[in-house]
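Sanity check

After download, print the first record. It should look like this:
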Amino acid sequence: MINSRPFRRTSFFILKEECIMPIILPEDIPAYKTLEDENVFVMRPDRASSQDIRPIEILILNLMPTKIETETQLARLLANSTLQVNLTLLQTSTHKATHTSEEHMGRFYKEFDDIKDKTFDGMIITGAPVEQMEFEEVEYWEELCKIFDFAQTNVTTTMYICWGAQAALYYYYGIKKHLLKEKLFGVFAHKKMVKFEALLNGIDDIFYIPQSRHTTISDDDLKNNKDLVVLAHSDDAGDTLIKSTDNTKLFILGHVEYDKFTLDKEYKRDLAKNLPIKEPVNYYINGDINVLWRSTATILFLNWLNYYVYQVTPYEFGEILKKY
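Expected structure tokens:
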């Protein structure tokens, strides 16, 4: 059943700030200033609380070492909808950030014990630079499993990105990852594998997704699982967009959230470390960076928020709790 979310307005002609709902961020988080400079509509929590509307509550487990960059990238995409979106940032307690200040983490991030009894309309679990390790060897694996269980009962729908997607596919469905001969690195063409899918509405039949990973998932393992649907495939990157048949899980084996310079930074980082790395595919053209995925990322996040979060989540938070 689709639950509509009424919000009040006094006139047919309304101000821009009322018809384009913002993302809600603390004014002193770095993402606020970055997005404001980009003319992305952001709003302070005190102002948001004065509006007669329940915001969509999104929880982000940020496992990336570049915390500030990743939270800004995700906030930028979530801010493009007509919904008011409130973010809660989550970190693991079993592994402390080493690339981000303790002040930033303590000020803007919560731990699982802080939120374990709450419910959320949606959740995003990012990638992490641990893909060449066995899942059980990862320092925070046990804690992550608890968060996976939490997502099953306390979240309407969850988006899993890159290593986060591989970890979730392994935990929920027993699907293993496989080491590639060389790093999959660049921007790769993908094609739709289903004719009608709400998540892909408005996205071209051929579209691009950045990839930066050493491991992959077997296409046959996905094809043989009746609880999963492959939405997009790449001849170079394999099956990249997958969802569960009950629409509660979206797996993205790539990084649609990356901004223009992310692959460039990773490439120069690996070169500086003398790691075996090739120039990212379809990324540099005549010395310039070629952005091919921005519209795809924007539409995909819009569709996820609209069709798989907003349209199906109950208005009352207590109704989100599910039994598995």
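If your output differs, re-run the checksum step. Summary of this record's structure: Confidence is low (pLDDT under 50) at residues 1-21.
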